[in-house]
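Assemble and predict.
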Amino acid sequence: MVRWRPNAQSRLAQAALDLYEEQGFENTTVAEIAARAGLTERTFFRHFADKREVLFAGGEFQESIIAGVTGAPESASPIEAATAGLDAAGALLEDRHEFAIRRQRVIAASPDLREREVMKLAAVATALAGALRTRGVAEPAATLTGEVAMSVFRNAFERWVDQASAGDLRELIRESLNELRTLAGS
Amino acid sequence: MVRWRPNAQSRLAQAALDLYEEQGFENTTVAEIAARAGLTERTFFRHFADKREVLFAGGEFQESIIAGVTGAPESASPIEAATAGLDAAGALLEDRHEFAIRRQRVIAASPDLREREVMKLAAVATALAGALRTRGVAEPAATLTGEVAMSVFRNAFERWVDQASAGDLRELIRESLNELRTLAGS
């Protein structure tokens, strides 16, 4: 018996998304997701705490942001360092446009999933603020920058999943950042 | 039998806060809160859906923000209109400094309450964006401004409850707004 499959996580996410679209999030069980992916429930729970988590997979998103912030030049301002993080996340997601559109539609249809998304983005904002503090950014600037940067990201992401063509998510992030500069300066 | 008492809501909130401090949020029941306030469970549930909601009372906070946005001069920019909303909320809370400190300490100690707080603030940001759209602000600027304004508010509010003297919450909101202008412009 194969006990570890490197792509189990993404197979489970795909299976979950298919089932949530076909029959709704509320009506889908973990057993069904595991069966659709050809895996056991035990394997599901090795990767995800529950059937909401399967759409917020693996910490990859947060890790890419933190890596981008950490790798920004020392001379970068707090918002520039945060933007380097968003840019890294944009690069990670860029070839998953169709998946992102389907996923966002499923999330929008479920209050449970919308709540989980809000909590996830808040946690990423907190982690981003932590990465800024590591760079020497003081509070309260670090927390404010973390939250504002995640608002910029969400703004860009929503436009990205609203458009039919994949376009350039990183370009949309830059546009949202310009919106922020305009609104803050007016 | 008195079926309606105009101050039932604030008595329940006070009783809940006392009990959450004395014995913890998790260990407190709705029956205990109602008894401490000298009211029935039925009255509790007429005002609040559950024992988390009792600390996020009444919609007053959101209403004050929306009223501030709606009442801002026609010439106000989106962020100026949003700031008028935050200012109105600051005026509402200003004489409740001690309650706010105690409440924030209880929220910080409970993951359930922290989650509810994040969701409440997200809902207020959404309502604020709606009030901006009513003023003619287009998307995605309205949503971005709503979220950023609530980050500014939270930033000011956290500093307010961290300080021993009541100080001036509205002054802290102006300082946070200046932080935002600085970070966005750098």
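Chain A has two domains: 8-54, 59-184.
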